[in-house]
Specification:
2 copies of one chain form a homodimer.
Chain A: H1 8-27, H2 39-45, H3 50-62, E1 66-69, E2 73-76, H4 81-93, H5 99-120, H6 123-141, H7 147-160, H8 164-184, H9 189-207, H10 211-221, H11 223-230
Antiparallel strand pairs in A: 1-2
Chain B binds a DNA duplex (30 and 30 nucleotides) through residues 38-40, 49-51, 54, 57, 68-74.
InterPro entries (chains A, B): GntR_C, TF_FadR/GntR_C, Tscrpt_reg_HTH_GntR, WH-like_DNA-bd_sf, WH_DNA-bd_sf
Organism (chains A, B): Aquimarina spongiae
Domain HTH gntR-type (chains A, B): 11-79
DNA sequence: TTGAGAAAACTGGTTAACCAGATTGGTTAT
DNA sequence: ATAACCAATCTGGTTAACCAGTTTTCTCAA
């Protein structure tokens, strides 16, 4: 399931189906563990293709609200009807994140991953971060574009944080960040040179296992982005 | 696409396909914008079903590395080969988040959403939070289980934070948290009664638009969970 | 009436055929 | 030589048929 990469038409259909499933659960008073009507039945009742039904169910499965068991059926997850209604409402309301949300979340995550990396990094992690840093520096010094190497430096830190959720979330927001960076031309050459020092500072803090300093240096690194984000 | 809800067999196949796609991109020196071989071709070459190929491509599409265009082809996204290799490596390495990662991430997100909610909440947001709080209190006072109402209170705050990414991430980690909560019996009745006061404090801080206080009260609310998480 | 057992119906998952639009290559007219 | 056209091919997306288990229903003996 893609989070929000559906075209508008399919998107609307899916929302309608999810609403319909919610209404059906409420109307039939289905409780946790109860079985939903079959995919075929639902596709008839809602007058959509079975594929659409499957997509919607998979989305709700992704958020832990339903569970499909092969050759048996789809069941309401072990979560109360109240929470289920609340979560479905939230899921339906979810919208494509704006750039500001992405940046805000990225900064939040990166300050934490820097902290955690300083505490938990292994020697291998440190080595990987160093290599990413060197690759970045070399590109910048040669006057080449270093967006990719910049990114990989930050992902190396996320990896070293040893937190699987944050690592995943970093990967999820990365494409959106990159796209918008290029769209709005947030970076420029001056920043790139300044970036070498900032990256080096972050690396040094993680190497010396100083979480507070690592967070501080990461914060400094994001200062311009932070301002850009909050001054428009 | 599900993040990590595939059975092991399919999971391994998908990882192999993603690796193979990466190798193919490297071997053929495909650059951003270049077209990948067709799904049918890949399914022959890798000796897997076309459905498997489609799933793998959709996953890489989800992370912004590929782009499928109907009736035309699948293209390498506008991201350099270096970043692409790095990100694929990370994606392949991603593992099911452990409970500690989930809790750590939840606390990070909730401290921020409380802050942001205090700043940005509308009157409607405040009203919704209040209703969630009242529903929670009533359940606890009646001695009933209030896990769902607890959850909805926190989701109401996430909604009021007006940050779409964080809201999404809260919804993503919620099922894992709930499951593990029940598995490890993190909550007990005493906490529930204490929770009323803590929730009320958080609500009051958000109402009076005091972000610092909101964060503080949320931190206090998570104190036990925090300790549970870091003392094992 | 009840129990077991078998067969029919139904389940989510998978596969292969089909679709409409895009692309390509060749042909022809200018 | 080149531009225009058209048909054959190829594309990702969609649909319908099929599959292997599960669940229900029916049958018939005890």
């Amino acid at each position: 399931m893609k989070l929000e990469i559906l075209n508008n038409e399919n998107h609307d259909i899916q929302k309608k189906i999810i609403s319909a499933i919610r209404d059906l659960i409420n109307h039939k008073n289905l409780e946790p563990g109860d079985k939903l009507p079959s995919e075929r039945t639902l596709s008839e009742k809602f007058e959509v293709s079975r594929g659409n039904i499957r997509e919607a169910i998979q989305k709700l499965e992704f958020y832990g609200l339903l569970e499909s068991i092969p050759q048996s059926g789809t069941f309401v997850a072990n979560i109360g009807i109240t929470a289920l209604n609340g979560m479905i409402e939230d899921i339906l309301r979810l919208e494509e994140p704006d750039f500001k949300s992405l940046v805000e979340t990225r900064i939040l995550l990166e300050l934490k991953t820097a902290q955690l990396a300083a505490i938990r990094r292994t020697e291998e992690d440190l080595q990987a971060i160093k290599e990413a840093l060197d690759a970045y520096s070399e590109k910048v010094i040669n006057g080449e574009d270093a967006v990719q190497e910049d990114l990989l430096f930050h992902l190396a830190i996320a990896k070293a944080s040893r937190n699987s959720s944050m690592n995943t979330f970093m990967l999820i927001i990365t494409p959106g960040i990159i796209t918008n960076f290029e769209k709005y031309h947030v970076c420029d050459k001056n920043q790139a040179f300044l970036g070498i020092q900032e990256h080096t500072d972050i690396y040094a803090a993680i190497r010396s296992q100083d979480p507070k300093l690592a967070k501080e240096k990461m914060k400094a690194h994001f200062k311009i982005l932070y301002q850009y984000c909050y001054n428009q």
